[in-house]
Design goal:
mainly alpha; 5 helices; 130 residues; Arc Repressor Mutant, subunit A; 2 strands; 2 domains; single chain
């Protein structure tokens, strides 16, 4: 069982999807500072990915300062800046770029996109009916 959630999608590089999911989990507190991160073997087995891909994910997270590797302990979540607005906005970077490109291809204005985002935001904030 992984301490973060991910739903792998075709068409996007697996490594990028996993990196995004882990960073998102760290920023939103799902992976708190000091929490043990799965080993390369555990990660590759849980996600059914090549161990080399899992190793690349862990190495990238260590290089970016998201994880810290300690001998005899393994990888743990590094101290973070508590997920400030900048870090959270960075997580949206790729999604925003795709949205803007798609909107421009469809001939929509920035106002059209803002209205669509506002409508979806409002819909998501409505109480769920049971």
């Amino acid at each position: 069982m992984l301490p973060f959630s991910i739903e792998l999608k075709s068409g996007l590089p697996v490594t990028e999807q996993i990196l995004y999911a882990v960073k998102k989990a760290v920023v939103n507190g799902q992976l708190p500072e000091g929490m043990k991160f799965p080993s390369v073997r555990q990660l590759s087995q849980a996600l059914r990915i090549n161990p080399n891909t899992a190793h690349k994910v862990v190495a990238t997270l260590v290089a970016e300062g998201v994880l810290v590797t300690t001998p005899a302990v393994g990888s743990v979540v590094a101290p973070q800046s508590n997920g400030g607005k900048r870090e959270k906005a960075e997580l949206l970077g790729g999604e925003v770029e795709r949205l803007v490109v798609e909107a421009r291809q469809l001939g929509l204005s920035v106002e059209d996109v803002q209205a669509a985002v506002a409508a979806h935001w409002k819909k998501l904030n409505q109480p769920q009916s049971k």
